[in-house]
């Protein structure tokens, strides 16, 4: 094809088409979620954290510690599965910050930020896609639990409600990691700092052991930990006796996290150099 | 729309007054005024760290200026950032496409974000890939694109809805000559459709090829502004390099050239070559004729454009510093 034809074709493609109406925030957020999910197609190993890790943790804790902690592995499973569900999903939230940091450092977000769209939509979209990952992780944990001998007494509805509660808390918690992801320079640093924060928060809880044997000051801290409240709430729902107080506390904690960290995220995002 | 007008009653795409951006104590942009008429190409010329990218980011609503104000296509930059975003598009210095996705997915993404329904988004994406010569790479991950292809895709993404004003940050840095020419053709085609282009570059050649007017930026300030002709006139029209067949004739050649050009002739480290700063191209042919008349054989000669360094040397009295460290610290 000649130069002139090329130029003519290019001009034709550039000459004004009708500008489509501006999409709303929900539509643009869903488009960003689509982008994040597309990436799984190219980098399937990013699903390792929601597949391999929960399986590893469940097996490790059940068979290495279960007998010692609860007398028998099958008894420990009934206690552990709701907790491991919480732990798995909470650890998955770190990747929200890591992938945000990657996007920002590559310059992709400069374009997004200069588009005429509802400005939080790239972040909200990423969180929606993460919710899909959390759901995958939740299902893997529960199915694996059922195979190993976990027998929840709650109804299907209560089990679904427990997954939804975990998702709500994870979504709220993610905003902490978006803040960390926007402050730190490299994704490795984001990973390091986030894990340093998450390990004590998840282990100083009632996920793995009953805090009854802990020293008083630690027991107080563990009981006040929102992760413990979430775990108690999930155990309640899966055991068919909803712990209403804990559920309410989890919802309050989620709201507080969002109220503090989502404006902070948006501030950092808008003013990122 | 109440657009500002320039001296010739042309509506302005950008009107900026006293833009300042500080990063800590460092004044990255230190009082920049602009009046860029619509439908033109405007070039920011300067070394790394001069403040080109920072200025562009402020005009594209990505950074808030610490001082000053600007109107973009008649919209106030600070009061109506959203209105500004609807009429501008940015192609950043570091590829602003998603490396993990393939070519067509990248364009569909932007098309969906601009409000195209699914099917027309696909159609528009395919149309642009075709126009930019990327149809064969539609299903290839951008990670595997060459630098030139990536740049073209990046610009195509900015063209999903043709903007009134396009920011191009160093569009050809690091590209091979062929890819560079392709980008230049795209910019030229774009301007014929009415889009105003603001581009930054480190190459005088590029600014010369594309820009109607050029601002030379150094240390956050505009140190010279004008058409490329005006800028060149202020720095001389370039350098004449001559290589002699016989090195022993160099002393005589130096004398002859110096007489013909009425300027200092420098001897290069290579024993057969010499060079001189020119004030006009006519003198060059006279000088070469003088060598010929004296039976001094020339094996090679070239007329080089003044480099960015020479522009800076003339304008600031010191060579352009490449402040890569500062640039790195702020990204």
Automatic annotation (TrEMBL), chain A:
Transmembrane segments: 47-70, 76-100, 121-147, 159-183, 190-209, 247-269
Keyword field: Cell membrane, Membrane, Transmembrane, Transmembrane helix, Transport
Record carries keyword Membrane: yes
Localization in the cell: Cell membrane; Membrane
Membrane topology: Multi-pass membrane protein
Sample GO molecular function, one term: ABC-type transporter activity
Organism domain of life: Bacteria
Major location category of this protein: membrane
GO cellular component terms, A-Z: ATP-binding cassette (ABC) transporter complex
Domain ABC transmembrane type-2: 45-272
A Pfam entry, by short name: ABC2_membrane
Similarity annotation: Belongs to the ABC-2 integral membrane protein family.
Protein name: Transport permease protein
Originating species: Sporolactobacillus nakayamae
Lineage of origin: Bacteria, Bacillati, Bacillota, Bacilli, Bacillales
Automatic annotation (TrEMBL), chain B:
Molecular function in Gene Ontology: ATP binding; ATP hydrolysis activity
SUPFAM superfamilies listed in its UniProt record: P-loop containing nucleoside triphosphate hydrolases (SSF52540)
Localization annotation: Cell membrane
NCBIfam families noted in UniProt: drrA
Name of this chain's protein: ABC-2 type transport system ATP-binding protein
Keyword presence, Transport: yes
Gene Ontology cellular-component terms listed: plasma membrane
């Amino acid at each position: 094809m000649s130069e002139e034809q090329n130029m003519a074709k290019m001009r034709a493609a550039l000459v004004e088409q009708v500008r489509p109406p501006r999409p709303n925030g929900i539509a643009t957020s869903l488009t960003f979620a689509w982008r994040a999910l597309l990436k799984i197609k190219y980098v399937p190993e990013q699903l390792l954290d929601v597949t391999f890790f929960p399986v590893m943790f469940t097996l490790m804790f059940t068979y290495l510690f279960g007998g010692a902690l609860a007398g028998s592995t099958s008894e420990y499973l009934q206690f552990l599965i709701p907790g491991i569900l919480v732990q798995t999903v909470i650890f998955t939230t770190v990747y929200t910050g890591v992938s945000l940091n990657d996007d920002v450092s590559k310059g992709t977000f400069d374009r997004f930020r200069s588009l005429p769209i509802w400005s939080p939509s790239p972040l909200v979209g990423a969180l929606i896609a993460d919710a899909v990952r959390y759901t995958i992780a939740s299902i893997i944990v529960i199915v694996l639990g059922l195979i190993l001998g976990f027998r929840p007494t709650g109804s299907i509805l209560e089990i679904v409600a427990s997954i939804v509660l975990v998702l709500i808390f994870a979504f709220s918690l993610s905003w902490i990691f978006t803040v960390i992801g926007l402050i730190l320079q490299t994704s490795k640093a984001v990973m390091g700092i986030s894990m340093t924060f998450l390990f004590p928060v998840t282990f100083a809880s009632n996920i793995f052991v009953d805090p009854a044997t802990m020293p008083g000051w630690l027991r107080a801290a563990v009981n006040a930990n929102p992760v413990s409240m979430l775990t108690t709430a999930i155990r309640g729902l899966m055991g068919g006796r909803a712990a209403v107080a804990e559920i309410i506390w989890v919802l309050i904690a989620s709201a507080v996290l969002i109220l503090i960290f989502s404006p902070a995220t948006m501030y950092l995002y808008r003013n990122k150099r | 729309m109440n657009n500002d007008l320039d001296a010739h009653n042309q509506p302005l795409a950008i009107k900026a007054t006293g833009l300042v951006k500080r990063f800590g104590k460092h004044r990255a942009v230190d009082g920049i005024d602009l009046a860029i008429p619509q439908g033109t190409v405007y070039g920011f010329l300067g070394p790394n760290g001069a403040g080109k990218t920072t200025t562009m980011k402020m005009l594209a609503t990505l950074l808030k200026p610490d001082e000053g104000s600007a109107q973009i296509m008649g919209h106030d930059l600070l009061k109506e950032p959203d209105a500004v975003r609807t009429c501008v598009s940015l192609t950043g210095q570091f590829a602003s496409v998603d490396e993990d996705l393939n070519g067509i997915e990248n364009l569909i993404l932007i098309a969906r974000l601009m409000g195209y329904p699914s099917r027309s988004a696909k159609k528009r994406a395919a149309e642009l890939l075709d126009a930019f010569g990327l149809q064969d790479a539609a299903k290839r991950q951008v990670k595997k694109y060459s630098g030139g292809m990536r740049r073209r895709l990046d610009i195509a993404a900015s063209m999903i809805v043709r903007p009134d004003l396009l920011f191009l940050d160093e569009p050809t840095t690091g590209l091979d000559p062929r890819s560079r020419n392709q980008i230049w053709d795209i910019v030229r085609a774009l301007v014929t459709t009415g889009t105003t282009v603001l581009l930054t570059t480190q190459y005088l050649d590029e600014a010369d090829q594309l820009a109607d007017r050029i601002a030379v930026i150094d240390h956050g300030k505009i140190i010279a502004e004008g058409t490329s002709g005006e800028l060149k006139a202020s720095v001389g029209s370039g350098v004449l390099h001559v290589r002699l067949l016989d090195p022993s004739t160099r002393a005589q050649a130096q004398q002859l050239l110096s007489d013909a050009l009425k300027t200092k002739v420098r001897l290069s480290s290579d024993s057969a070559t010499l060079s001189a700063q020119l004030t006009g191209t006519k003198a060059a042919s006279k000088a070469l004729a003088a060598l010929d008349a004296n039976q001094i054989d020339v094996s090679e000669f070239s007329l080089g454009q003044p480099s960015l360094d020479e522009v800076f040397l003339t304008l600031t009295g010191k060579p352009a510093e490449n402040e890569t460290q500062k640039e790195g610290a702020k990204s």
